Amino acid sequence: METNILKMITIADLASLANAICGFLAIMMIISHNLTSSAMFLLLAVIFDSIDGTLARIFNQGDIDHIIFGETIDSLADVISFGVAPAVILYMLSGYYYMLIPSILLLACGILRLTRYNTIAAYQDQPTETFIGLPIPVSSFILAAFMLSSYNTVILAILMIIIAILMVSDIEYPKIRELPLILVTFILMILTMIPQVNNMLYHIPAYLLIILGLLYIFGIIIISIYDGPGIIDIIKDNSESRNDSTVKDRTLNRR
Predict the structure, then answer these.
(1) Which residue(s) pair with 131 in the sheet?
(2) Confidence band (pLDDT; 50, 70, 90) for 63?
(3) Strand ranges, E, within 46-97
């Protein structure tokens, strides 16, 4: 087994490290009362997290040591950027002790969600097309979008509590594979992270990110209630039709 860290790490792992660093910088910025920069680093963390899986599929194929190493560093980075960072920022936005409740809940549920994800992935041979529970990056995605538009701390606290609970729920959320939707979201994130553009457009990019995030969070629940599991099966079938169903690669489960 390779133990040289320089030989173990890949480009995908560097993206995961960048994710963690952005989460740390987001915390530093909010401590310095730089709200805009803090939110920007949260969104950057989401971007790095979204590309490390693609990079892993390219560079880590067939190497079990790299796969395990990558899964571990990915989860540790996610704890920082989507667990610790939003928990600290949420508290700092108000400074009131009652905000510790949603902050602690967000952190605890985030850790539990990642632990369950890794446990399930360890027993899977084939990639899945759904997440069990709300994906943890949604916490920072939504929080940053609100920070870069306008927010009420009480409403934000309630929303973060809901997000925390959904992360440890058994609700299946589809993995987003549609390229047009990914590109639109990416463009909106870039526009939101440029203060001059976001302000000039009256925070519309940030509001659109909020809408997309809320549609993903609550849309799946509404569909499940009124349409049953049928729509989820359709999403799975459409996604699986674009992939080789015989492929057995745990790297595909990395976010």
Answers:
(1) 173
(2) low
(3) none
